[in-house]
Amino acid sequence: MYTLNIANKNYSSWSLRPWVLMKELTIPFTERVTPFPEGSCWQEFREFAPNGKVPCLHDQGEKIWDSLAIIEYLAERHENVWPTDPKARAWARCASAEMHSGFSALRTRCPMNCGIRVRLDEYPEALKSEIARLNELWNEGLNRFGGSFLGGASFTAVDAMFAPVVFRVQTYGIPLEGKAAAYAAHILSQPSMRAWYDDALKESWREPEHEAEAKATGTWLEDLRLKDA
């Protein structure tokens, strides 16, 4: 059985991607959580990941790191990881690669922190541009392939790649247009996303750097997480 090494569910957007995909496709795996330490995680995470980061998938002695590499590794071994329609599959791979390498303003201004609600103090032009592109991309997939998921009727890797953004939409009240708003609500309602969110709220530990990033971006309206004992 696979072992998937991840970090805090409240913060770890990269960990969420393979985790939610494997859950939605019912691919069995054992979850191993290593919370982000204060300061550098390099040495601690190097014990299970060559790059000192999460996620990292272990499979019979093989170590596969980086969320997109894990997804492709799974696609070689399991059906329905990517959309079955060739055009949808090509689009889904492009959109996933764009998410993997882009949206830097969204990542920086809206770090993933599932259990809080924040009103952004400002929307810099770079963030506005990326939100516009997000709306465009999501509406394109939903309209073009005619399903409630980005690549069609089923949850696939492209939805997993954007799952952390869906949590950001919820946390920061990011404005969505057209079918994109319904899509975000639909993804949040998936069993795997609900399970991840419930676990995130139960986490009592806090990592100062991640907390500071979220506090710097706007006004905290709610903190729904389990309070420290």
Short description:
With 229 residues, the protein is of the alpha+beta class. The protein is built from ten helices and six strands, in the order E-H-E-H-E-E-H-H-H-E-H-H-H-H-H-E.
Spatial arrangement of strands, main beta sheet: 2-1-3-4
Q: Give the class from helix and strand content and strand pairing.
A: alpha+beta
Major sheet description: 4 strands, mixed
Mean pLDDT: 96
Low-confidence stretches: none
Please state the overall shape, judged from the principal axes of the Cα atoms.
Answer: globular
Radius of gyration: 17 Å
List keywords for this structure.
single chain; 229 residues; two-stranded antiparallel sheet; 50% helix; alpha+beta; 10 helices
Describe the protein.
- This protein has 10 helices and 6 strands, in the order βαβαββαααβαααααβ.
- It has helices at 13-24, 42-45, 67-75, 86-101, 104-109, 125-145, 157-172, 180-188, 191-202, 208-217; strands at 2-6, 29-33, 56-59, 62-65, 116-120, 218-223.
- The mean pLDDT is 96.
List strands and helices in order, with pairings.
Blueprint: E1 2-6, H1 13-24, E2 29-33, H2 42-45, E3 56-59, E4 62-65, H3 67-75, H4 86-101, H5 104-109, E5 116-120, H6 125-145, H7 157-172, H8 180-188, H9 191-202, H10 208-217, E6 218-223
Parallel strand pairs: 1-2
Antiparallel strand pairs: 1-3, 3-4, 5-6
Helix pairs in contact: 1-3, 1-7, 1-9, 4-7, 7-8
